[in-house]
Write a structure and sequence with these properties.
The chain is α/β, with parallel strands linked by helices. It is 49% helix and 11% strand. The protein contains ten helices and seven strands. A seven-stranded parallel beta sheet has the order 1-2-3-4-5-6-7, covered by helices on one side. The chain is globular and about 55 Å long.
Length: 237
C-alpha cells in the first residue's frame, strides 16, 4: 500500500515485526527479523533495509554474521544497534569493534550499513557520549549513522557535526519532537526513519475501536479509517 502511495524504499521495524507475531519487541530471533524484512522486499519489489536490533548477539562476530545473512537474502541494507534489547549500551570499545566487523562484512556483500547509537533512549541520556560513538562509527566506515531519541534541532546539529561526511538518519514523529522533513533536511539530515510509528498508529486505530466495543458497546471507527475499496485499490496498485 505504501508503494502504491509513492514511497520508493523501506526499512523494517523490529517492533512492528514483533507485534505482527503477537510478541513484544526484542523477542524475535535474527532469522525472524530477516524474514520480516525479506517479506517486505518480496511484496514491494523495492529496496529494504532490515532492522536487526543488535544482530542477534553481543559479539563483533555476531554483528558480521548478521550482515552477511542480510546479503544472502538480497536485502539492500541493515542496521546494527549498540545494545541488546532491554539492556544498557555496550562499552565503547565493544561497540566500535562490532561496527568495524559489520563494516567489513558489508563491504563483501554490498549491504548499506547503518550503525545505531541507542543511548539517548536509556534512563541517563548522554548526548556527548552519543556524539563520540557516532563519530567513531563514522570513522569505522559505517555508511549511515543513527541516534534515535534526538528531540530538538540542537541535538540534531550536534550529531550531524559528529558524523562528519557520513549521512545521518533521524527518527521523525512522536515521541521524538515535532521536527518536519524540511527542517531535518535544513539541519543536514540525509535519511528519515519512522521507527515503529506506523505500526503503532495502525494498532492504535484497531485497539481504540475494540475498546469502544468492549467498554461502550459500540463500534465507532476512527474518523481516518480507510474504506474497503480504498484498501483494495492500494493493494492492487
Amino acid at each position: 500500500m505504501l508503494k502504491a502511495m509513492g514511497f520508493q524504499a523501506f526499512g523494517s521495524t523490529s517492533a512492528g515485526a514483533a507485534y505482527t507475531a503477537g510478541r513484544p519487541e526484542g523477542t524475535l530471533s535474527l532469522d525472524e527479523m530477516l524474514d520480516a524484512a525479506e517479506t517486505l522486499a518480496r511484496v514491494s519489489g523495492l529496496p529494504v533495509s532490515a532492522d536487526l536490533e543488535n544482530g542477534g548477539s553481543d559479539t563483533p562476530e555476531a554483528a558480521a554474521h548478521a550482515i552477511r545473512e542480510v546479503g544472502k537474502r538480497g536485502l539492500a541494507g541493515a542496521s546494527i544497534e549498540d545494545c541488546a534489547p532491554g539492556v544498557a549500551t555496550y562499552p565503547m570499545a565493544l561497540s566500535i569493534a562490532r561496527v568495524e566487523a559489520a563494516v567489513a562484512a558489508a563491504k563483501d556483500t554490498g549491504v548499506v550499513l547503518t550503525a545505531r547509537a541507542e543511548g539517548l533512549q536509556g534512563d541517563a541520556p548522554d548526548l556527548e557520549d552519543i556524539c563520540t560513538r557516532i563519530s567513531a562509527f563514522s570513522k569505522a566506515g559505517a555508511d549511515v549513522v543513527f541516534a534515535p531519541g534526538l528531540t530538538d534541532a540542537d541535538m540534531v546539529r550536534a550529531v550531524v557535526k559528529a558524523a562528519g561526511d557520513t549521512p545521518v538518519s533521524v527518527i521523525l514523529g512522536a515521541p521524538y519532537g515535532a521536527l518536519t522533513v524540511a527542517r531535518l533536511a535544513d539541519l543536514g539530515v540525509a535519511r528519515i526513519s519512522l521507527g515503529s510509528s506506523l505500526a503503532r498508529a495502525a494498532y492504535g486505530g484497531a485497539l481504540t475501536a475494540a475498546r469502544n466495543l468492549l467498554e461502550k458497546g459500540s463500534f465507532a471507527l476512527p474518523e481516518n479509517t480507510y474504506s474497503f475499496d480504498e484498501i483494495e485499490a492500494l493493494l492492487r496498485g
